[in-house]
């Protein structure tokens, strides 16, 4: 089953909305953003959520110790890194946060450049991240920008780099287009923010339900076709 994360969550109501729609995870942005939340806000939200709903903290160039502090205070189950963090940084986090999933964002532009130069193979292997989040944000933009990218070119680039890890696809997704990257990339997970919002930081219940349903419908059709 494809892992579905509803990111940019700012209220308990929106987290509950994601849970009821069948999402696997919610994301909380701790970096500068219109959707930024404080550890205090997230701690109150998480305290009301069931353990089966994963809680992901999004960070940009934060220190290892501060990330570990926030994870512990808020009861997060995963961290998502969108800055200039190195593989060594990820390894340090692994020691500080045993049992916590660590995801690393990767802009499509950086992936395409790496594939052209046949670079990053060692980087993928050395980092040991639980998943890589691929989005369309420009390399200079941190935290995602709601921009889509060429999924077929991404597939070619990943193949050129012999990528074998877990892939999360983000960037301009909504219920109308999510089948595209699912079909092209067969990712481990998908991540959505603006495509399910009524306004920045507040979710739209109909859009959240439609997004999760679109993912599950694609899965059902694929399984039926394979059967």
Question: Would you give an account of this structure?
Answer:
With 227 residues, the protein is α/β, with parallel strands linked by helices. It has one domain: Alpha-Beta Barrel (TIM Barrel). Helices cover 42% and strands 19% of the residues. It contains nine helices and ten strands. Strands 1-2-3-4-5-6-7-8 form an eight-stranded parallel β-barrel, surrounded by six helices. The chain has a two-stranded antiparallel sheet with strand order 9-10. The longest helix is centred in the last third of the chain and has 22 residues. The chain is globular. The mean pLDDT is 91.
Please state the structural category: alpha/beta
Q: Domain count, please report it.
A: 1
CATH architecture label: Alpha-Beta Barrel
What is the average per-residue confidence, as pLDDT, rounded to a whole number? 91
Strand order of the largest sheet: 1-2-3-4-5-6-7-8
Q: Compute the number of helices.
A: 9
Pattern of helices and strands: EHEHEHEHEHHEHEHEEEH
The low-confidence parts are none
Distance between the termini: 16 Å
CATH topology value: TIM Barrel
Approximate strand percentage: 15-25%
Specify the helix fraction band: 40-55%
Described by strand count, sense and barrel closure, the largest sheet is: 8 strands, parallel, barrel
CATH superfamily: Aldolase class I
